[in-house]
């Protein structure tokens, strides 16, 4: 049984000009101990699909699926109370912008301890000690002292590590990382990716990596889903995807890598005609 099993997921938003389908009938599955990358340009529906799983879409969104199960439990028909027991504990998410995702009015220690209190029933000294342990685990120096820091007093890389600490606080079975290295410098990007992969290997959790960076895919993923305008263009193991991509769109993404530049011009996805692949 897959850890997460989604069949024919569609997400539509009610707009002033009618319904807009951000995700159009995609299938997603991931197993424990597996790293699944979901890749595509900005606006391809990668984040929206996973926010649908987390139940974090606005009221203007309509989510339908033939199946959306976590460990065999139906997330679509599950009561709100039961879902709250899963989201944040068994399924956790690291968001794109850590500084914006953390509450500026509370210390990072308070925010980590709040997760521990809500989902693990840890309070007081036990919660504080676990928070220190988590900050140490994600590589933050002087962890005990940093508990009292506010998000604006930390760098972008440190805030991302705090977000990871919050996400893994309850030992989740599935971790969704949404562009976890966005806006970080190259050195910090490598550290964050190495940390996520090491945590995944150590805990055996499933990891979904949302990214537009094919280099990240090559370094981290076991299996890859390629999305374009809400459609799944193809799915393959990472070696097959890079050596023998089946979709024109995937070939366009790969050809746009810097090493494929011809002279002073880099190919772009606009150079490829793949509209028929999505029925346009």
From TrEMBL:
Keywords: ATP-binding, Cell membrane, Membrane, Nucleotide-binding, Transport. InterPro entries: AAA+_ATPase (IPR003593), ABC_Ni/Peptide_Import (IPR050388), ABC_transporter-like_ATP-bd (IPR003439), ABC_transporter-like_CS (IPR017871), P-loop_NTPase (IPR027417). Pfam families: ABC_tran. It is a peripheral membrane protein. GO terms for molecular function: ATP binding; ATP hydrolysis activity. It is found in: Cell inner membrane. Gene3D superfamilies: P-loop containing nucleotide triphosphate hydrolases. Residues 4-254 form the ABC transporter domain. SMART domains: AAA. The keyword Transport applies. GO terms for cellular component: plasma membrane. The keyword Nucleotide-binding applies. Signal peptide: none annotated. One of its GO terms (biological process) is transmembrane transport. Belongs to the ABC transporter superfamily. This is ABC transporter ATP-binding protein. It comes from Devosia ginsengisoli. The lineage of its organism: Bacteria, Pseudomonadati, Pseudomonadota, Alphaproteobacteria, Hyphomicrobiales.
């Amino acid at each position: 049984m897959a850890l997460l099993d989604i069949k024919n997921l569609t997400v539509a938003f009610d707009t002033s000009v009618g319904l807009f389908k951000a995700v159009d009938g995609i299938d997603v599955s991931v197993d424990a101990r597996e790293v699944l990358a979901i890749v595509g340009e900005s606006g391809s529906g990668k984040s929206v699909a996973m926010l649908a799983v987390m139940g974090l879409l606005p009221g203007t969104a309509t989510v339908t699926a033939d199946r959306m199960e976590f460990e065999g439990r139906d997330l679509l028909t599950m009561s709100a109370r039961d879902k709250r027991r899963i989201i944040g504990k068994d399924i956790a998410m690291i968001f794109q912008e850590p500084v914006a995702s953390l509450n500026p009015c509370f210390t990072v220690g308070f925010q980590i301890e709040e997760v521990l209190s809500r989902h693990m029933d840890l309070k007081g000294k036990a919660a504080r000690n676990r928070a220190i342990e988590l900050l140490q685990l994600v590589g933050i120096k002087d962890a005990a002292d940093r508990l009292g820091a506010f998000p604006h007093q930390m760098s972008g890389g440190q805030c991302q590590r705090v977000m990871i600490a919050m996400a893994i606080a309850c030992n989740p079975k599935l971790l969704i990382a949404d562009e976890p290295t966005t806006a970080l410098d190259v050195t910090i990007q490598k550290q964050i990716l190495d940390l996520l992969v090491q945590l995944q290997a150590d805990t055996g959790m499933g990891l979904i990596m949302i990214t537009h960076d094919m280099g990240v895919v090559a370094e981290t993923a076991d299996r890859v889903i390629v999305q374009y305008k809400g459609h799944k263009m193809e799915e393959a193991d990472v070696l097959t995807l890079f050596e023998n991509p089946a979709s024109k769109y995937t070939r366009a993404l790969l050809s746009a890598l810097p090493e494929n530049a011809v002279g002073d011009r880099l190919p772009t996805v606009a150079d490829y005609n793949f509209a028929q692949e999505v029925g346009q």
